[in-house]
Design a protein that fits this description.
CATH class of the largest domain in chain B: Alpha Beta
Number of domains of chain A: 3
Radius of gyration of chain A: 25 Å
CATH architecture of the largest domain in chain B: 3-Layer(aba) Sandwich
Structural class of chain A: alpha/beta
CATH class of the largest domain in chain A: Alpha Beta
Helix content of chain A: 25-40%
Number of strands of chain A: 14
Number of helices of chain B: 14
CATH architecture of the largest domain in chain A: 3-Layer(aba) Sandwich
Largest sheet of chain B: 7 strands, mixed
Distance between the termini of chain A: 18 Å
Structural class of chain B: alpha/beta
Distance between the termini of chain B: 59 Å
Largest interface: A-B, 199 and 208 residues
Oligomer: heterodimer
CATH topology of the largest domain in chain B: Aspartate Aminotransferase, domain 2
Strand content of chain A: 5-15%
CATH superfamily of the largest domain in chain A: Type I PLP-dependent aspartate aminotransferase-like (Major domain)
Strand order of the largest sheet of chain B: 2-8-7-6-5-3-4
Strand order of the largest sheet of chain A: 1-7-6-5-4-2-3
Chain lengths: 493, 446
């Protein structure tokens, strides 16, 4: 059990030390009594070594890319190059204030301008805003742009966004935040957009369609042209959720296949680190006539210098971030694109696709893969249904228990892997979404495949190992229900 | 290829195992006409060494605040950050970890978030904090949405003295849901509680007040409490976390929700991003909160463990009925804040706050002595204050920049051409402050 930092506190102990205050002013003369804190603030009193030991101890309780594989669908947990980290820890990037005069931040603006252009080239969009700081933030921004487009035309009634039932949960949540309504359509039996269902759902109120392509089953939407036609026929806009862009790099440009708006997850596709939940970057690209609605400022080039350009402020949706987005994250993505260029990005997609198909092929006889009628793109969705049917265990306190996908996922943790994305997409029972990414080697994939096959054997012959998993992790299976029921969200001391 | 492990030979073996003779067979279902025939038109690939050179050239065009005497603030501040902070957030165990959905292999991230939440609660005096938001502005916007959800009312009254960036983001976040925003104009650099009272009606969901406000002035939060809580509207405070080491904990003036920009806690300025927002509230509002929340629980052996909690609010479960679409929490930034607050501890943070305030007051006094310059307002302030300048503030700024001084943020954006907003942190020495005063004097004389 790791003690909290608060339990390590000893009155009077100190970490950082400041220089002696060399102005002769009394703090009580600065803050009138009424505004002074009544009870002293409580923060831990620990030494620098205490702090180091504490957080290093915590760090040992995490899975992370350098430790092991993340077969995590829709999340593209690829390797994060170390040069990026070294390069962004540069005072001329870290120590820039967002209100500095433009001529003192030309380097920063140049990188941002160049990244806007590179992402436009990669996506086939006209221009890109770097302001959104996360995928969901990008969705919200893109949806606001779509709304603005319709409103500028006086089409205030266009406020319905159609989504397939395989969509990420953020999609409908972002639609609601943007003040629009969601209509969900069923996928067809091949896991694709059901064109007939789409046609039936489309009407004059349709503002647009949000689609992940490849979709969340890892399949390219082969009828994308017809889908776009249906949506465009009512002046709807096509939004691409870019979570799966890794599969398309250098192979297909979303702007060429009918999409009008899309977000990038630079922390997925462009290898910036996830950080345990951010900071990421959710840049948004749009077709030409939508550029004027993007958040201000954009970065523009005037002759040989770069400016923060708010000339479209009147038509812009406004701002979604205080400043210019997660600049430090965007710099990393820029470095990544410079390193790989066109050929390298194409190789990323090819290797990601080969790796995913390889695992799918090797596991399809052991685990149900409901949509293996075609090759997958960079990920595929397996199911724990066979195991659930076959493997039942009698537990003392709970009676008969089936082995579920959750148990299989937890058993993977015991074997040194992160679990796949599970129970998503919602349209596959007991789903396990597996995405290896291009950075993993055949050797790692083979070991993972063996681990999965071994777990299947355990499901049959030693189900107790699976249902009680994980056992080799820093803590055993965590009680999520108690976390809600006996809510304890802060240390009281 | 960089960062791709497999060799041509391995790829060949894999394709064979898959049962295809070439990669193109795997993407045969993508309509032919959509498949790119050429590589993307990007500039040629560069090696790590070439990129290092390129970055050196590009970044040399920037003037960084560590090479200047900077007084820039207005929401983003240059505070001292102990080296220990970057050491921890650079560790791959935190840096490259995924969102902590798999609790058993994410205890490090989860416990760090729990400790962050605890520290935010201790700073603000509130009961519950979420795990972090995109920035202070979006945290303020989400707090308004939260208030609307709780009260089922759709009018927000906002102090005209809040940060203009917050105003912009609040507008974009709240217009879709149909929240009416009513701004209370500043009177002499603060808002008058009586004006708030007059603006409130039975449709008011919340009142948002920032202290210290955009000009650096303290608002009368106790009076706001009285006025706001005569009704059922929620009181949302926007605060500077550093100030809370010496200033009233927001719970003292009975706020319902507290938000703010957290960058000052151990995060570099990075040209304004990443930042992070904090959001804390009272326990009875917990199910209305946006964002991730970590709770303590146990594992099957009864050992202390941590997990994401109250997830029924969130998008992956509630979809379009979720309290927010957010699903990340700027985790590495909040980790930096947690390490920072641990390194400084109680006395260290009080010292930081005291040095900011005392140095800011020293500077303000010295500037006020200069001919032509005066303090714009006569209110108490913390680390930031507004001065009136004898010439346009933009001109003063430009002249000081020639002396390598980043003089602050001019308020021409809000129509005050002769006002300059000056921030002072503990990093400034008396010599830095005196150099600023001398430069102002020279500019005015010259």
């Amino acid at each position: 059990m790791a003690e909290t930092i608060f339990e390590k506190s000893r009155t009077g102990r100190k970490g950082a030390v400041l220089p002696k205050n060399d102005v002769n002013v009394n703090i009580n003369d600065c803050i009138p009594e009424k505004y002074r804190r009544k009870e002293q603030v409580k923060l831990p009193e620990v030494s620098e070594m205490d702090v180091m030991r504490h957080f290093i101890e915590l760090s040992h309780r995490n899975h992370f890319i350098e430790k092991g594989f993340y077969p995590l669908g829709s999340c593209t947990m690829k390797y994060n190059p170390k040069s990026h980290e070294a390069f962004v820890r540069n005072n001329c990037l870290m120590d820039l204030h967002p209100y500095q005069p433009e001529h003192t931040v030309q380097g920063a603006l140049e990188i941002m301008y160049d990244l806007q252009n590179d992402l436009a080239e990669i996506s086939g969009m006209k221009n890109v805003t770097l302001q959104p700081v996360a995928g969901a933030h990008g969705e919200f921004t893109g949806l606001k742009v779509m709304k603005a487009y319709h409103e500028a035309k006086g089409n205030h009634h266009k406020n319905v966004i159609i989504l397939p039932d395989s969509a990420h949960g953020t999609n409908p949540a972002s639609v609601a935040l943007a003040g629009m309504k969601v209509v969900e359509i069923k996928s067809d039996d091949k896991g694709m957009v059901d064109l007939e269902a789409l046609k039936a759902a489309v009407n004059e109120n349709t503002a647009g369609f949000m689609l992940t392509n490849p979709n969340t089953l890892g399949l390219f939407e082969t009828q994308i042209e017809q889908i776009a036609e249906v949506i465009h026929s009512v002046d709807g806009l096509m939004y691409m959720d870019g979570a799966n862009l890794n599969a398309l790099l250098g192979i297909v440009r979303p702007g060429n296949i009918g999409f009008d708006v899309m977000h990038f997850n630079l922390h997925k596709t462009f290898s910036t680190p996830h950080g345990g939940g951010g900071p990421g970057s959710g840049a948004v690209g749009v077709r030409e006539d939508l550029v004027k609605f993007l958040p201000y400022p954009m970065i523009s080039k005037v002759e040989d210098h770069f400016i923060l350009d708010s000339s479209h402020k009147e038509t812009s949706i406004g701002k979604v971030h205080s400043f210019y987005g997660n600049f430090a994250v965007n710099v990393r993505a820029w470095i990544y694109i410079k390193t790989l260029s066109g050929e390298g990005l194409r190789a990323v997609a090819e290797n990601a696709i080969i790796n995913a198909n390889y695992i799918m092929k090797k596991l399809e006889n052991t685990f149900l893969v409901p949509h293996n009628h075609t090759y997958c793109m960079h990920e595929f969705v397996a199911s724990g249904d066979w195991q659930k049917e076959k493997c039942v265990i009698e537990l003392k306190d709970k009676g008969k228990c089936e082995i579920k996908t959750l148990d299989i996922a937890k058993r993977l943790l015991d074997k040194g892997y992160h679990a796949p994305t599970i129970y998503f997409p919602l349209i596959v029972h007991e789903a396990m979404m597996i995405e290896p990414t291009e950075t993993e080697s055949k050797q790692t994939l083979d070991e993972f495949i063996s681990a999965m096959i071994e777990i299947n054997e355990e499901c049959i012959h030693h189900p107790e190992l699976v249902i009680n998993a994980p056992m080799n992790t820093p803590v055993k299976r965590v009680d999520d229900v108690k976390a809600v029921k006996d809510l304890n969200v802060r240390f009281k001391w | 290829m960089p960062y791709i492990s497999n060799t041509d030979k391995e790829r060949e073996v894999m394709l064979k195992e898959i049962g295809v003779s070439s990669f193109d067979e795997l993407i045969a279902n993508i309509p032919e006409k959509f498949r790119l025939k050429e590589f993307l038109g990007l500039e040629p690939a560069m090696s790590e060494l070439e990129i290092a050179k390129r970055l050196f050239e590009i970044t040399s065009k920037n003037l960084c605040t560590n090479k200047a005497n900077s007084f820039m603030g207005a929401g983003v501040y240059d505070h001292f950050i102990p080296a220990a902070v970057d050491y921890i957030i650079s560790r791959a165990e935190f840096l490259t970890a995924y969102t902590p959905y798999q609790a058993e292999v994410s205890q490090g991230t989860l416990q760090a978030i729990y400790e962050y939440q605890s520290m935010i609660c201790d700073l603000t005096g509130m009961d519950i904090s979420n795990a972090g938001m995109y920035d202070g502005a979006s945290a303020a916007a989400e707090a308004i949405l939260m208030a609307a959800r709780k009260t089922r009312k759709y009018k927000a009254i906002i102090a005209g003295t809040i940060n203009p960036r917050f105003k912009e983001v609040i507008k974009v976040y709240t217009e879709g849901v149909g929240i009416e925003l009513v701004y209370i104009p500043a009177v002499n650099g603060v808002i008058n509680p009586a004006d708030v009272k007059n603006a409130m009606d039975d449709k008011t969901a919340c009142v948002v007040v920032q202290t210290p406000n955009y000009f650096g002035n303290f608002e009368d939060m106790f009076e706001m409490d009285t006025v706001i809580h005569e009704t059922k509207a929620l009181f949302i405070a926007v605060v500077d976390p550093i100030s809370l080491a010496v200033m009233n904990a927001p719970a003292e003036y009975h706020t319902d929700i507290v938000v703010g920009e957290g960058q000052a806690l151990g995060n570099k300025q990075y040209y304004g991003g990443p930042l992070f927002g904090f959001l804390a509230t009272k326990m009875d509002l917990n199910r209305m909160m946006p964002g991730r929340i970590v709770g303590e629980t146990v594992d099957t052996d009864g050992k202390r463990a941590y997990a994401l909690t109250l997830q029924a609010r969130e998008q992956h479960i509630r979809r379009d009925k979720a309290t927010s679409n957010i699903c990340s929490n700027q985790a590495l930034c909040t980790l930096a804040a947690t390490v920072y607050m641990s390194m400084l501890g109680k006395n260290g943070l009080i010292e930081v706050a005291s040095q900011c305030a005392t140095k800011a007051h020293y500077l303000a006094n010295e500037i006020a002595k200069l001919d032509g310059f005066e303090l714009a307002f006569n209110h108490p302030f913390f680390k930031e204050f507004t001065i009136k300048t004898p010439k346009a503030a933009t001109e003063i700024k430009a002249r000081l920049l020639e002396k390598n001084i980043l003089a602050g943020v001019d308020l021409s954006e809000i129509g005050e051409d002769n006002m300059l907003l000056i921030a002072v942190t503990e990093k400034k020495s008396k010599a830095d402050l005196d150099a600023f005063v001398n430069a102002l004097m020279e500019v005015n004389n010259g």
